[in-house]
Structures are given as C-alpha cells and as structure tokens.
C-alpha cells in the first residue's frame, strides 16, 4: 500500500494544478475578461497579463538574486541600467518604490527635462517637474540624463528661428543648474530622416554657416563642460541610410572639433524582430571605433510572445555588454502600466520588463542573463 501511495504522490507531483488548492498551473490561464478560474499561479510562477482577455502563468523572474543595475555595473561592467520616467508616475507608491531601488535602476532619464515640458510657450519656463526629478536622482545618487528630445521635431520647429532661441533656453540660470546636476544630455534627437538626409530644420535658417545641430552641441558644452553631450536616433540598429549618415556626421563633428561624446540608440523593437547580437555589436563599434561612447538610450520590445521577448532582451543587453564603449542601457519606462507602446502601436502587446502589477516578466530574466553571460 505504501508503494502505491508513493507512486501516486510522484504522479500527482507532475500534475499541473495542486488539486483543491485553486491554483492555475504553469503556462495555464490565470485571468482575463470573463475568466472564472483560478487567478493565483502555482509557486514559482507569476500571472502575466498578455491582453484584456488572457493572462498566463509564466515562470517567476524573482529567481534573479541581484537587481538589474547591480548586475549591470558588476558582472556587466557598465555604468548603469536605467529607465525613463515621468513626474505623474511618482504619485504611484508602487512605481516610486521600484524607481528608488538602486539595485534595479542607477540612472533616470526625466521626460520633464524636455523642451516641450519646460518651455511649451516661448519665453515662459517651468522647472518644477524637472527639479523634482533631478532631486530624486541626486537623493538616490543616480545618474540623471537630461532629455532634449523633440527639440527640433514638429512640436518646437516653429519656435526655432535662430541660435538666440537656443541660447536663451540653455543659458537660463535655472537650466544651468540642471546642466551641472546631470551626467549626460541627449542634446539632439532624430536629426536624420529615414532616407539618410539631414532634416531641414537641422541647419541655420540662412542655409549658411554652422549647422544648427552643431550650435546646440556647443551650447550644451558651454553650459556644463563636465556633462557628456549625446545625439540620439532610432533606425540605427541595422545597417542602412540612417546609420551611415550618422556616422558621416560624427566623423565631420570630430574633425571640426564640435563637442560630441556619445551616440544614443533609440531601440524600439518588435518581438522576433531584434537584429542579431553580431549585427548590434558591429553597429555599436562603428562609433566606439571613433573614440566616442554609445548607449542604448531607449529600449522596449513589443509583442505578445513573452518567451521570445525574454530572448530578445537578452540579445540586446548581451550585445551592449560585449562592447566596452557601450556604457549603459535605459528602458523607455519599466512597467507596462505606464507604457506608451499600446497607444502608439495598437495590438502590439506589452513591451516592458515589468507587468501592470510591477511583477517582473521573463524579459527581466533576459536582461539579467544578458549582463551575466
């Protein structure tokens, strides 16, 4: 009788649900619109929302003993692992608890340091939100990366008529305080069109003299010589016109003595669409070979296949780890709760490593593995 009981116990151990405990099995459904079954997963699994109609039990990512920033700066050899953040998110205690966890994040890119957030009307400055973010970074001894994105996009192009406008913004006394409180500035974003041409607003109105991009770089360096100045762009993760044009611009800036310390890769991928590790390494080294650094300044990978997403995050992180001059990685945000991806890419799935409930998804394990292996 004992032998039968042991055999039965061994058999029951392989059953996906603990009978009578009301737990969803590993890989089983645990939620969704109209779902009436168990909503708690078996130990070692976590319920992850894939869409409004289906949540699934995936292996818990909490097995990672060290936080993402700790692993990035030790085993990964990087300066930081960070995230973008917005001020309204700070009203969420669960969000703030994660953001303040230095083992998870060692760098913050505040969206409230963008031009459209500080000078939405020409000549009228609002610094409160930016001050709050910089203070948060200083409190946690984090790196604050100022975000000048959208400076020359459609939102602000009407405001930019000549260099004096930029001078007014950069050399405002309160702006200088920000400059000296930051480690790096993403000074200029998306200066190159998809066909490789420089966007028309990138040059002085007369069409002569110093490029407007160069004027912004000089202004940023003048405000704080110790902060790194970056130019960032998307569509550089694979060889093509944007990568080639950016390389030409950097070579020109370096030859002319224009301040440029790094290139930021804005990496917005789809699950299964991430370039190979070898391709990413080659693209990063295109710039590090010139003596400047690179960073992944925005990273998200959208799609419903969470296990492939884990693999894709590992690929990107491991590529950065393999390049000495790739100094760090910044997420576009860290939780699906505040992700802009569903609104911008409807039906594409959740793109970030933490779910709506701030529980790490398999993607988080991919990040840890990328910095570790």
TrEMBL record:
Catalytic site: 298 (nucleophile)
The organism's place on the tree of life at top rank: Eukaryota
Name of this protein: endo-1,4-beta-xylanase
Xref: PANTHER family: ENDO-1,4-BETA-XYLANASE, GLYCOSYL HYDROLASE
Pfam families linked to this entry: CBM_1, Glyco_hydro_10
Any one GO BP annotation for this protein: xylan catabolic process
Residue intervals of the CBM1 domain: 22-58
SMART domains in UniProt: fCBD (SM00236), Glyco_10 (SM00633)
Organism: Mycena venus
Classification via Gene3D superfamilies: Glycosidases
Enzyme Commission number(s): 3.2.1.8
Catalytic activity of the protein: Endohydrolysis of (1->4)-beta-D-xylosidic linkages in xylans
Any GO molecular function: cellulose binding
Signal peptide residue numbers: 1-20
Family membership: Belongs to the glycosyl hydrolase 10 (cellulase F) family.
GO cellular component, one term: extracellular region
SUPFAM superfamilies per UniProt: (Trans)glycosidases (SSF51445), Cellulose-binding domain (SSF57180)
Compartment(s): Secreted
Keyword annotations of the record: Carbohydrate metabolism, Glycosidase, Hydrolase, Polysaccharide degradation, Secreted, Signal, Xylan degradation
Pathway: Glycan degradation; xylan degradation
Domain GH10: 65-370
């Amino acid at each position: 009788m004992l032998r039968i009981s042991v055999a039965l116990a061994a058999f029951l151990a392989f059953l996906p649900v603990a009978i009578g405990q009301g737990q969803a099995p590993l890989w089983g459904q645990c939620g969704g619109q109209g779902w009436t079954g168990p909503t708690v997963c078996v130990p070692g699994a976590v319920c992850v929302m894939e869409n409004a109609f289906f949540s699934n039990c995936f292996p818990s990512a909490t097995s990672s003993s060290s936080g993402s920033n700790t692993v990035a700066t030790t085993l990964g050899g990087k300066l930081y692992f960070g995230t973008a953040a917005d001020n309204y998110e700070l009203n969420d205690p669960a969000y703030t608890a994660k953001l303040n966890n230095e083992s998870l994040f060692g760098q913050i890119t505040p969206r409230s340091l963008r031009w459209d957030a500080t000078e939405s009307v020409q000549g009228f400055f609002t610094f409160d939100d930016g001050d709050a973010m910089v203070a948060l970074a200083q409190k946690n001894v984090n790196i604050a990366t100022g975000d000048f994105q959208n400076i020359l996009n459609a939102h602000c192009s009407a405001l930019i008529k000549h260099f004096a406008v930029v001078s007014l913004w950069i050399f405002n006394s309160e702006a200088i305080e920000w400059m000296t409180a930051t480690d790096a500035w993403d000074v200029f974003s998306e200066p190159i069109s998809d066909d490789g041409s420089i966007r028309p607003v990138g040059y002085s109105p007369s069409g002569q003299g110093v490029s407007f991009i160069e004027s912004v770089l000089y202004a940023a360096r003048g405000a704080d010589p110790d902060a790194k100045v970056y130019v960032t762009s998307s569509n550089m993760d694979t060889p093509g016109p944007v990568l080639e044009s950016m390389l030409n611009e950097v070579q020109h800036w370096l030859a002319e003595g224009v301040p440029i310390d790094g290139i930021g890769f804005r990496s917005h991928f789809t699950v299964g669409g991430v370039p190979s590790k070898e391709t990413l390494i080659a693209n990063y080294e295109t710039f590090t070979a010139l003596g400047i650094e690179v960073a992944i300044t925005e990273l998200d990978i959208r799609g419903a296949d969470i296990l492939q997403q884990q693999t894709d995050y590992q690929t990107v992180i491991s590529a950065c780890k393999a390049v000495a001059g790739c100094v760090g990685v910044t997420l576009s945000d860290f939780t699906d709760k505040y992700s802009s991806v569903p609104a911008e890419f409807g039906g594409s799935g959740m793109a970030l490593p933490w779910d709506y409930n701030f529980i790490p998804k398999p993607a988080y394990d991919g990040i840890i593995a990328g910095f570790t292996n």
